[in-house]
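re: the backbone from monday

yeah here it is again, tokenized this time
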């Protein structure tokens, strides 16, 4: 019984024999920390564009996921945007409109 358990352990290649990429064969690591930030995106179906940076302010329009927009300033968790599709300017919540996070595999 012990022989059957020891046999697979003997047939396995030792860790030192495993192929490890050397510095010459490994691809150079490009740091992504110096890349520009990712663009803002709508992370829900639609967001209300408001006249002030408050959820109780007047609604001016709706920013849909398919719309093109530009962010010009921030105030707390609110972003002042210009909806290029409709021309409406106003504030949207940063809870739903934000930049994706870039993953750096260093």
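seq for it, each position gets an aa:
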């Amino acid at each position: 019984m012990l022989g059957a358990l020891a046999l697979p352990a003997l047939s396995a290649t030792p860790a030192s024999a495993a192929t490890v990429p050397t510095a010459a064969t490994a691809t150079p690591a490009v740091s992504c920390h110096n890349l520009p930030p990712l663009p803002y995106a709508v992370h829900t179906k639609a967001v209300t564009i408001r006249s002030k940076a408050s959820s109780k302010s007047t609604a001016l329009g709706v920013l849909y996921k398919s719309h093109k927009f530009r962010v010009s300033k921030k105030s707390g968790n609110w972003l002042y945007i210009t909806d290029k599709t409709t021309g409406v300017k106003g504030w949207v919540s940063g809870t739903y409109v934000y930049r994706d996070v870039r993953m750096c595999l260093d």
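Strands lie at 40-42, 46-50, 59-64, 69-75, 78-83, 89-93, 97-99. The mean pLDDT is 82.
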